[in-house]
Design a protein that fits this description.
Elements: H1 3-13, E1 22-25, E2 33-36, E3 45-48, E4 52-54, H2 56-59, H3 64-68, E5 70-74, E6 77-80, E7 92-93, E8 99-101, E9 106-109, E10 120-121, E11 134-135, E12 146-147, H4 155-160, H5 167-176, H6 184-194, H7 198-210, H8 217-224, H9 228-235, H10 239-252
Parallel strand pairs: 7-10
Antiparallel strand pairs: 1-2, 3-9, 4-6, 5-6, 8-9, 11-12
Helix pairs in contact: 6-7, 7-10
The structure holds zinc ion.
Zinc ion binds next to loops.
């Protein structure tokens, strides 16, 4: 076999990973899942996601089916799954899951999983985007009814999923501990700098509010703004949007961010 044909066959057969201890099931439009066909011990890596890293703006252009096969890996980066469904793409959300995150793209068993059980993880372990909110019908006793972008902030989930959040969510959790309101002096500094260096003034203030001393302007805006219009205006440094933000920070000192 030539080197060229070997490369082609590798490219065409590589797929994301589902443990051989489970199989995917389901057909459209009823949804997909993966079920254990053998006992799966706690700690087993059961699936990995692959894909292309996209910003929210680009991600939003894809259809709902494709977007359902995705995972957030950073504030404004989402891995979008391949064009065709692959074995590792079929791990559903549950509010009472048996799996968690080992890293940004790998799912592991949080407990021993019996034959016949569906493999599930809680999307709050990996996603914190308003684009991913949905009404949940997982049917478990712990079902939250709606899965929201801020669920990772819930004390109950933080305790239940300790060690099973993705690195991105774990960073958000750690940053929360350093969040603070702006002091009177912070506000005075922000206002004194704003006329000549508006971007620097606002970035420094938001970094303090979010407890992220090294965050970029783009990251801070993604964390703060809820509406796409607001995000794009702030990212393009629209004067009215910046004036509104500095006014809000002056008034609230960052409360409610
Ligand atoms: Zn649920």
């Amino acid at each position: 076999m030539s080197r060229a044909s070997t490369s082609i066959s590798l490219v065409t057969t590589v797929q994301n990973f589902l443990t051989p201890l489970a199989v995917p099931f389901g057909t459209p439009p009823h949804g997909f899942g993966s079920r254990a066909i053998a006992a799966i011990p706690v700690g087993t890596s059961v699936a990995t996601f692959g894909g292309t890293a996209l910003t929210h703006a680009t991600f939003a252009r894809y259809d709902a089916e494709r977007r359902s096969r995705s995972i957030q890996v950073d504030t404004n980066l989402i891995f979008l799954g391949p064009p065709k469904r692959e074995p590792g793409d079929s791990i559903n959300h549950s509010c009472e899951p048996n799996c968690g995150m080992r890293n940004a793209t790998t799912i592991i068993a949080m407990r021993d999983i019996a034959i016949g059980e569906e493999l599930t993880f809680d999307y709050a372990m990996s996603d914190a985007s308003i684009y991913d909110e949905f009404d949940c019908n997982c049917g478990t006793a712990l079902c939250r009814g709606r899965v929201r972008a801020d669920d990772w902030r819930l004390d109950t989930l933080r305790h239940r999923y300790t060690g099973f959040f993705s690195p991105y969510i774990q960073r958000r959790i750690e940053a929360e501990r350093h969040r603070s309101l702006l002091t009177k002096r912070d506000v005075e500094e922000m206002l004194a700098t704003y006329d000549t260096e508006p971007l620097m003034a606002l970035r420094n203030a938001l970094r303090k509010c979010f407890g992220m001393p090294h965050a970029t302007w783009e990251t801070l805006i993604e964390l703060m703004a809820k509406q796409p219009d607001e995000i794009s205006q702030l990212l393009s440094l629209n004067t009215d949007a910046l004036d509104q933000l500095v006014g809000a920070l002056n008034e609230t000192r960052g409360a409610g961010l």
